[in-house]
Amino acid sequence: MKHALRSLILVVLCLTLLLSSTAGMAEDKVKLSFATQFAGVDPKSEWFNEYVIPTFNKLYGDTIELQIEEIAGEQNYVDKMRLLLSTDHLPDIVHPAQTITREVAEAGKAVDLTPFLDAAPEIKDIIAPKTLERNTIDGKVYGLPFEGSWIGLYYNKELLEKAGAGVPTTWDELIAACDKLQAAGIQYPMSFETATNAWTASLTFSALIGSSGDEGYQFMNTYRSTDFNKDYIEKAFETISTLIKKYAAPDAIGGDYNKASMHFFNGESAFIANGTWMISEFNDPERAPEGFADKVGVCAFPGNVALKTPMDGWVITAKDPAVIDAAWKFLTVVCGKEGQLSHLEYTATLPDSDKLEMTEAAKEKYPLLSEMYAVLQGAKPIQYFSKLWTPAVVDALSNSYPALVYGQMTPAEACQSLTDAAAKG
User: Which burial class, exposed, middle or buried, applies to 149 when counting CB atoms under 10 A from its CB (0-12, 13-18, 19+)?
Assistant: First the structure.
């Protein structure tokens, strides 16, 4: 009996030591906090959860513990990060969305990545020069990019053929095509929305300005403009309000992106402005009917402009050196060569780097992506609204569309409203 008791005590002691040791190992892990919008139906959620997290845990899971908060919706994510920035309680990593990572950097909360990049030429050398410039403040690199941004105009080939309409190269041709589509029974030829940042409408508005002439082209390549009282911007407001009022579904006013894209997927509209990442949705059976991707073509915006914007990068906001080092390891998984190419294959989003060629898997999976790259390669590059203008201006812009459509504001007054918003900083 005594022998059995001693054996039991020995087993209990061993288990206690083992549990203590395991607990100690867990406590020794560096804890890395991270909030993300890449959750739920977000186009990047599958890539993030199937590639990024498993890859990182495989490489560093023994020493680093990820603490991830999911925040559904880009605007919700940006609003939460702005709140945490104002209270100095940001997570250790903030990923790009709208202008939030630049806001973090300008507030002095982003870690200088220059020494990390100098020690990792395999990553530094693949950053596009314009993107590196975009992510540099006072000679210090604050953000590490992982994707490029190519945005054009998608169209439904089947609907255009039915209406006897061609692919538009001018704004007048686009309006003529919409008239033909309506005559052929396509009541709402264009997909727009005005909720949140009025994404598809504001992309088109950006293209209207950028294609208006040399001044407009320069305007759409200039950061933080403060004076919107320009004849070409007034004309752009006049045109976009006409497009929304005459050619978009009634739910464009107050509707969100999901409603706008639904009309395109359902064959109820023939045109929608968006980036390369939408190509993955064309192949998603939960979003689009089977074979829908074969019906989609892509072109530059009228006036031969395309939105090709140097993107903000991921920032590190941690203060503890060990956490900063862990955060850099995370960024190398996301933004390194393999991370960018996996992101391409999952989401049809082109890499930031022009040194990374499309993989054969991406070409096979997304033939439209190769077409888009070829079509937009020769277009004049401009940038888009939410990467150029302050959040206050973006808010004023999205509020202007309903007011214009309902006759509560003139195009000239809309220009002044953006100027007033810019003055707020």
Answer: buried
Report d(CA 48, CA 57) in Å as an integer. 12
Rounded-to-integer distance, Cα 100 and Cα 283, Å: 30
Apex CA 382: angle with CA 381 and CA 384, to 5°? Answer: 140
Are 297 and 166 contacting, i.e. CB atoms less than 8 angstroms apart? no
Rounded to whole angstroms, the Cα distance separating 126 from 352 reads 8
Please give the backbone phi and psi of residue 365, each rounded to the nearest 5 degrees, phi first. Answer: -75, -35
**pTM of the predicted model, to two decimals?**
0.80
Reduced to 3 states (helix: H, G, I; strand: E, B; else coil), residue 124 is helix
Rounded Cα distance, 210 and 391, in Å:
20
Per-residue pLDDT of the chain (425 residues), as tens digits, is: 445 445 544 444 444 444 444 444 446 899 999 999 999 889 899 999 999 999 999 999 999 999 999 999 998 999 999 999 999 999 999 999 988 999 999 999 999 999 999 999 999 999 988 899 999 999 999 999 999 889 999 999 999 999 999 999 999 999 999 999 999 999 999 999 999 899 999 999 999 999 999 999 999 999 889 999 999 999 999 999 999 999 999 999 999 999 999 999 999 999 999 999 899 899 888 889 999 999 999 999 999 999 988 899 999 999 999 999 999 999 999 999 999 999 999 998 989 887 888 899 998 999 999 889 888 888 999 999 998 999 899 999 999 999 999 999 999 999 999 999 999 87
Strand partners, 112: none
Do 104 and 317 meet the contact criterion of CB atoms below 8 Å apart?
yes
Please tell me the distance from the alpha carbon of residue 135 to that of residue 175, in angstroms, as a whole number: 38
> What is d(CA 140, CA 7) in angstroms, rounded to the nearest whole number?
63
Strand residue runs (E) in 375-422: 380-382
212 sits in which H/E element: none
CA angle, corner 234, sides to 233 and 235, nearest 5?
A: 90
Q: How far is CA 318 from CA 62, 66, 113, 133, 340, in A?
A: 20, 14, 12, 23, 24
Length of the chain, in residues: 425
Which residues have CB under 8 Å from 222's CB, separation 6+? 388
406 close to 243: Cβ distance less than 8 angstroms:
no
Residue type, 274: N
